[in-house]
Amino acid sequence: MRFEDAALDALVTEALTNNTTLQIAKARVAEAHAERNAARASLWPQINGGMGAQRGNLGYFTGDKDIYLLEVEAIGSWEVDLFGRNRIRTSAANAILESERATQQAIRIGLLAEIARNYFDLRNDERQLALARRNLETQKKTLELVRNQHQAEMASDLDIQRASAQVAATEASIPVLQTAHDAASHRLNVLLGREPGTSHAALATSQALKPLDHRILIAAPAKVLSARPDIRAAERRFAASLSAKRVADLSIFPEISLTGFFGRQASTPFTSTPWGLSVDLVQPILNFGRIEAQIAAADARQKQAFLNYKATVLEALENMEDVLSAYLHETVTNASLTEAADHARRAASLVKQAYAAGQVSLLDVLEAEHAMLVAESAQAASDYRLRNDLAGVYAASGGGWDAHVPPDAPSRGHSEAPTTAK
Predict the structure, then answer these.
(1) How many domains does the chain have?
(2) Residue pair 336/129 in contact by the 8 Å Cβ criterion
(3) Does the pTM of the predicted model rise above 0.90?
């Protein structure tokens, strides 16, 4: 994500190391990797060694004498993969491993987007708190001015009540904003693998968010789909289900295995070197429909995996269209709200000057101050939504976007939309 924010970068770095959900995903990849190696090992012979020693008197069999017996043997076995069952199982295990790797990447992308959203939420709450406190100070000064005018019989009790009501309403909004700020901070701590309430150096002080770079090229839908790890994960799970279905179909064929052993026996009266080779064949004959049921279950799981893959693709397309629409429209909204906030600030300044000159009433001042607070708060909320939408674009596009444009590309205004790459 290209937000050029050092504090956000620090949070992301820590989360990639300590987030528990991501660590679980890494452990699942390690498990799938081990399972794949185990499946791959079934393609090769297995050799086991054994050794035993005993001493005793077996009566008649040993001539009523004490003897010792030492045995050393090696046993090798190999399932002849004549019909390709083990190769297909290995292919399925490899597909599952690739699916888990893609799932890990999807979790990583979702984690980064969630950190960004909560971070921007926290910064928005900080900004809203600053706006509320600044306007509260202005309103208190206005209330003090009205009280002075009341003492000089230039303002009525109604004017004092109106100014006092506005001060009280602004004061009431501050605890609500502080609660939201604390909730965002607690959520960030959990995402970082910390206990809620833990302080973080990157969040110790409030800071303004840097302006966004709107020169962003969005990839074509086909490229986005190929980059999304959730789609890759669903496709690999579908591939694994195809392999599982083939293994189930092959279960009607016989299993052939080769076994050999070689040993060395040494005892009191003699020594020997036993050995042997054998071929075993097991052919299912009567199982009361168990194999057919397993084939039917594998076929049903294959259909489920295909439908899940299809649903994942459709939801990915919907997600991309939604976040692009939200970002495009919010850029326009943000430009309008920025202009509205500028006008509201100028209007409030002019009304205060007119009030000091006795040209307007206190109600006009209070209304102008309230309009300025609303406009500035709306602009701050739009700034937050714009960054939140960009984080959504990041997640929906599979983990990133191209923030570079050609040097000769025309500069875009604040309200212009990103260009879709072809």
Answers:
(1) 1
(2) no
(3) no
